[in-house]
Amino acid sequence: MGLPRWLCLLAAVAAVAGEHERHLDVSESAPVGTRIGFIGDGSKDSGPPYLIVPVPGSAVDTDLIAEQNTGEIRTRVPLDRETRASYTLVAIPLSGENVRVVVRVIDENDNAPTFPSPSMHVEFPENTPRDTKRTLNPARDLDLGPYNTQRYAIVAGNVNNAFRLSSHREKDDVLYLDLQINGYLDRETTAAYHLVIEAYDGGVPPLKGAMTVNVTVLDVNDNQPTFNQSRYYATVPENATVSTSILQVHATDVDDGDNGVVEYSISRRQSDKEGYFTVDRHTGVISVNRPLDYETREVHELVVVAKDRGDQPLETTAFVTVRVADVNDNQPDINVIFLSDDATPKISERAQPGEFVARISVHDPDSKQEYSDVNVTLQGGDGHFGLTTQDNIIYLVIVALPLDRESRPNYTLSVIATDTGSPPLHASKTFHLLVTDVNDNRPVFAAPEYWASVSETAEPGTSVARVVATDEDEGENAALTYKMRDPPPLWFQVDPQTGVVATRDRMDCERDPEPTFVVLAVDNGRPQQLTGTTTVHVTIHDLNDNEPIFDQSFYNVDVSEDRAVGSCVLKVLSNISAFYLFS
Where does the secretion signal sit in this chain (predicted)? Predict the structure, then answer.
């Protein structure tokens, strides 16, 4: 639709006419219909009516009302400076200069600072130095000047005042924001912060916008593991099998991730070099690794190490005292010391009741006392030996009854020790006791008398008889030597070793037809030799080698007349016989 003809004529005139500007202001909060002002002031133009020519793109037609007949300009719609800050139109009067009207929209504080997102995330290692910064998203405010963003503040979540804010404005009029460390971070104390940051403009009262900054404190391996006890105690029986669990140590590390993962080990350099125990690297359970022996070692001291898995691992130690409990697994140990001159098991048959044979001491390896509570008994000997003690510590084997080697040369004795364990264990030591000889038996001949005969013509050295003696003693005490008792016989001798009696000279039956002599058997005992005796009777068989010879050649005898018949009147002797003369 075209303009009225007169307006077209005015426009043509305006094209050659002069122009001046008129500036009007209106608040962006002005209600619809608010009078902004009038086009002309009557100084340079003829006043209304006007031909209103909007500047292309200025939205005058949509947002403002410009009255042609009155020159009044009003708001058609609510204005928004942030959408359009000014409007421009050209008013052409009937005469005079054209009027370029510029309507400026005056800013009101109708926009709050706004962050680009309601939250954001930042990270700081816990060892970050103080004053270190992290740039945060700044808040933006569409308002101008004092109504723009003026300051920031942390209004919540700043535990222990760990952070502070700093800001600076750059040429784009944006107030940029930094988060700074205000003190020292410790992830183990506070692992995360949820900071509520508000941005304020310069209005009265100020408008504000908020953003939550989630701060994660990254772990640094700055804490060593900590045991829940500095020293642990445990008791384990000595017969515990390998892999038996004893106790569990526990350490914690307040660091995060691998820095807080604890692994356990036993310091072999400082303890348990023999490897009697082992510890599970993950659970801390200490177990038996080798058979234990109370008698070898009663107490084991372990140094257990807890180490984290950080790149530069930290560690700590705890002490574990393991006591090995005794189990009655050892028989008593019997020690016998024989009290003979050469420390061998023997006793003289001369020993009197009460004399000592051996000293016995008993030790139970299951007991740490030098002398254990052990019951000791003696078996064997048929009552010839006994056991005595004054203190139940040292025992003595003694002679109880007289001994006789010749009746019994040795005894088998057994010492039995029984401990007080449950169940009790027994040990025994058996020894063979030799009864040594004493020269207490004389040699005894097989017969108290020996009878022999020999011809008087026997040559010297002819065996006549053999005497035999025995001695119940032994050794030198039973070594016999034969000899003739003084005075020795004229015609006989005895072999000192064999006891053979032989002639040593020619015999004369007429001189001694039945010689008798005593043979001695002498032992070789010391210090005193004992002797046995026997009598040897020898009959010498005569040969007719001598004529009779009277002892005188003439005999004269007187006989009384009253001599009885048969009375011996005379005895005549010859070298071979005797003759008697009777009345």
Answer: 1-18
